[in-house]
Every structure is written in structure tokens, then in C-alpha cells.
Amino acid sequence: MKPRKALGIALAMFFICTLPWHAEAQENLPQLVKRVRPAVVTVLVFDANGKIKKYGSGFFINREGHLISNFHVLKGYQRAEIKTADGRRYAVKEVLAADPRADLVLFTAHLPQGTSNFLYLSKARPEVGQRVVVVGSPLGLEQTVSDGMVSAVRNFSNFGEAIQISAPISPGSSGGPVVNLRGEVVGVVFSQHRRGQNLNFAVPASQVQSLQPGTGGLVRDPKVSMWGGASDQESQARAKEMFNQGLNYFNAGNYEKAVETYRQALELNPGDVATLNNLAAAYLRLKRLEEAAEACQQAIRLKPGYYLPHYNLGMVYYQQNRFQQAAGEFKQAIRSKPGYPPAHFNLGLAYVGMGDKGAALEEHKNLQNMDAKMAAKLFSLINK
Fold first, then answer.
1. In angstroms, rounded to a whole number, what is the distance separating the alpha carbons of residues 97 and 356?
2. Which residues 6+ apart lie within 8 Å of 10 measured at CB?
3. What is the pLDDT, as a whole number, of residue 218?
4. Which of 95, 103, 43, 71 is nearest to 222 (CA)?
5. What is the mean pLDDT of each run of 10 residues along the chain (384 residues)?
6. What is the model's pLDDT at position 161?
7. Is residue 242, in this structure, part of any structural domain at all?
8. What pLDDT is stored for residue 233 in this prediction?
9. What is the count of structural domains for the chain?
10. Of the candidates 314, 290, 286, the residue with the CA atom closest to the CA atom of residue 300
11. How far, CA to CA in Å, does 205 sit from each of 41, 164, 241?
12. Collapsing DSSP states into helix, strand and coil, what is residue 219?
């Protein structure tokens, strides 16, 4: 079997524009986030060797420390922990109830005592157009906040009612709360639509309210239903398949489809560094710089010595005109993989952006023995 291919991105220049938040949400958001964040946790799941294999999100719903997350976040893994907003980690203690159809799980952790940080569940059905906020750990980046609105409330034959939201989510957001501007949970993030950007879904809070210990019709044997190893092997095989599909889409220039496919692979195997790197490369092609940076940073956290995430993060910084930071990432890529021509080429361009022609010419000199064509191209850009 050939090794999987990871991608480094070619240089491109462009500007990014974003729209500000709606005034009402912006005024209320700081206080709302300050109140919600302490109740939100990152869920870490481990394989049999103690390696982190998946990130998810969750939140406290009462003073006793009961937590809600997605069923699929915990399914198929040997051990799990939660990480609270203050950075403390606690082992998952017990699964109290689970509803695979609604993709919900109610569980506890080994907390020294209960918690005063919990979220209330909204009893009202959210209205279309209502503004909402999502807090979670997309790509393992803890306590990330995004906002949007309720786009629709839909019914699916194989699932039931689901809330469609415009707030952007990524792998790792699963199980996080969707709250209204009063800080009440209206839903739980559970799915990303596969054929479009920012078409995401949440389980209604009413489903959470019915998920109580002892409720009939729910999974009651956590050893069988939550920790079985067979689903892990199936997930890994499917993740590899999705990785290869994503690479094919990327090589064909279909970067939107590559992003979609890599995100699916990461839902199955969030700790895969090559997939995170290639997702970043696809985001770069689409000029989605913030998302590219998030994917690079997560890959670097998982494998600091891997050169390509540093290189791609350097590309993000360069395209944001953050030349000094770009140079730092290109240097790290070179330290991790000496003699990597694209890193020397773009380091030279970063020096040009910093106004340091002498350092740029030094990189041209380094390139001459690695790639003569690339060296000539850099020289022409230095003297342009």
C-alpha cells in the first residue's frame, strides 16, 4: 500500500473580507459567552493504547454534574475524559442513558463535587430566524464560539425533528450546546450537512429533556453500546477511504468537495494529522484562511515535528501579510525537513515582505542547489 499523500499549498495573493455580527448579538455576546463557557467541556476519547483518537464537546445540565454529548462521540472507544473550561481533566465515570437514534448520551465524570456551572434547557421550540450561539471544540480548539441563526426546523423520517442552524461548526463541535441569547440550550450540535457550507443541524432540547436515567427504550448497557471495539475498526477503515477520496477531489481541483470529504474523515478519525493538513491545504485553495489556520494549529498540536502543517500555516500568515509570523513557520518547516525547497522559496518571499532583501537573497542562494527553476523564480521576484 502506498503511503498517504499530504499536501503543501502553492503561493497565492488575495484579500479576505468578513461581515460584522448583527448589532444586537454583538452587544449581548460577551456577557452571554462569559456565562455559557464555564458549563461547556471538551470530550477526549482514547484508544486502547491511551492515545487521543477523537475530540468532541459536551455541557453540564444540572448541579449534580450530569453531562450531555453526542452518542457517536463516545461510541467505540475504551476510555474518555472531559476537560473543563478551567483546564482540569476528569475521567468519564458512567453512562446514565443513551439514545442512538437521537445521537444523545447522558453521562457523569469523576468530579470531586457537583458544579454550579450548568445550562438550563429551553422549553420553547426555537423560531426560524432566532439568533443562536454555539460553544464547543471544533478540531480540538477548546471553547470556540460561533453565532448564526435558526434556518429551519425540519423532520427526517429516520431521525425525527432537527434544528437547522447557520452557525459554522467543524468536527469536534459535536455534542456542544446551541443556546439562545438568554443562554438557554435550544439544541445539541450533532451533524453537518454533506453538500453545503454552514448547513448544520442540532438535536432539539426537547429530546435532551426526555433523556433521563431509567427512561424506557434507551440503551442501558454502556459496555456493549458505548465501548465496543468493532465500530472503531470500521471507523478507521472508512476514514482512510474518505481520505483517499478527498485527495482525488483535491488533485482534480474540486476543493469544495475535498473539504467536505476531509471533514467527513475527521469526524471518524479526528486525530489524523495528514487529514488535518490536507483539509488546511484545501481551505487555502478556497481562500478560507481562518479555517485553514485552525486545521494547521490542530495538526501541529498533535504532531509538532511534522513539517507540512507549519508550512501551510506559514502560507496562511503570508496571505494575511503577517510576514514575520510566516517566516517563523517556514523556518520551523525547514528545521523539521531540511532541504524542503517550497519552504525556502516562501521564506524568501516572506523576507521580501519584511523588506529584508539580504535575507531573501540568502534563501535564493540556498535554493540554487535544491531547485534551480525555483531559485530563478525567487530571484526574479526579489528584484521585481
1. 62
2. 342
3. 35
4. 95
5. 54 30 48 90 84 86 92 79 92 84 88 85 89 79 81 78 84 87 92 57 87 44 36 70 88 90 82 88 94 90 88 95 96 92 94 95 92 91 89
6. 85
7. yes
8. 63
9. 2
10. 314
11. 18, 13, 34
12. strand
Q: Is residue 60 within 8 Å of residue 41, measured between CB atoms?
A: yes
CATH number of the domain at 273, please: 1.25.40.10
Q: Could you tell me which of 383, 293, 231, 352 has the C-alpha nearest to residue 9?
A: 293
Q: Which of 82, 103, 119 is the last residue of a domain?
A: 119
> Which residues partner with 152 through β-bridges?
164
What DSSP letter does each residue of 97-165 carry, written as one string?
A: EEETTTTEEEEEE--SS--S---PBP-SPPPTT-EEEEEE-GGG-TTEEEEEEEEEEEEETTTEEEEEE
Q: What are the cell numbers at 277?
A: 493538513
Q: Which three cell numbers stand for residue 214?
A: 431509567
* 97 located within any domain: yes
d(CA 274, CA 280): 10
C-alpha cell at 343: 519552504
Q: Are residues 114 and 245 in the same domain?
A: no
Q: Cell numbers at residue 217, please?
A: 427504550
